[in-house]
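Quick one:
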Amino acid sequence: MSVIKFVICVTVAYFIGNISPSILLGKAKGVDIKKEGSGNAGTTNALRVLGKKAAVITLVIDILKGILAVQIGMEMGNYTIGTVCALAVFCGHIWPCLYSFRGGKGVATAFGAILAVNWQLAIIELLVVAAGLAVSRRMSVGSLLGAVSFPLICYFFEPGFLYIGSAMALIIVIKHIPNIRRLIKGEEPRMFGKKEEENE
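Output:
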């Protein structure tokens, strides 16, 4: 594969990641989601600020971004390029140049990318995240549990994706440092539950 084609694939993947449904839906309602709630342009904040419908749309599009970017890389190049595109679309979502490098935390887009790499790996990760969410009623706990466990799960189910996948997992943990601090203080709001807890 030529260097030019590689650069094109990765660049396209990054800009696919820049597509931000929560920001666009917020603008349609006259709301700057980056200034409301947690300030993140992701599903959880879309749910709190814009409602359930916007959250579902955001979740679906963010997942599809990951799938599309990896498929482009694999079809135009090969498995390796596909995995690099996974990282590119993930970074494009978190640090979108079209929105002053302020995006979401990358969990949904990462899931979509993983789904395109290995659907079995993605389902296992989904179950881990769901377990954390079900027990804590906090999406941040599910996301962190999924990120921390991902390298080990990836080692057994998709070793070829281990290094890039681990880098993505580490970034997710770093992006959740404010959530970790709130969890320690007992101030992290629940994704669903008592209204008075939704104070993010």
